[in-house]
Amino acid sequence: QVQLQESGGGSVQSGGSLKLSCAASGDTRCMAWFRQAPGKEREGVAAIGSPGSTTYADSVKGRFTISQDNAKNTLYLQMSSLKPEDTAMYYCAADRSGWYFPLHRSRYNYWGQGTQVTVSS
Asked: How would you write 18-49 as a 3-class SS string?
């Protein structure tokens, strides 16, 4: 069983930055950030897998950076140049499978409770 706990969400003005963290308990091979805005489906934002493969949704490329600290078993999402359309609940996800369809939510077995990010114009 893997438990995930997100933190770091908040309110920021357009153009600002936030860094999300996800503390994980248990072994994982692939971790990702998803987000869900009101009335919309949950979408993959960024994913990272062993040994360091990363991928991003087109909407966040060049603005967001996913990383992990294996010693702390923590996943991060550095978000810069934030836009109002980035407003959503952000979720951390993880599983023990390999690097395939890393931004597909159906592959992930473990989810955090989410942290809210609000970007005002």
From this structure: EEEEEEEECCCCEEEEEEECCCCCCEEEEEEE
**Dist. CA 99–CA 78, nearest whole Å:** 21
Pairing relation of β-strands 18-25 and 53-56? unpaired
CA-based nearest residue to 29, from 7, 53, 64: 53
Residue-wise pLDDT tens digits, 64-113: 999 999 888 999 999 999 999 999 999 999 999 889 899 999 999 999 99
62-to-28, 100, 106 alpha-carbon distances in Å: 26, 22, 26
Amino acid identity, residue 115? T
> Nearest 5°: phi and psi at 97?
-90, 175
Amino acid residing at 79: M
The number of beta carbons lying within 10 Å of the beta carbon of residue 35 is: 22
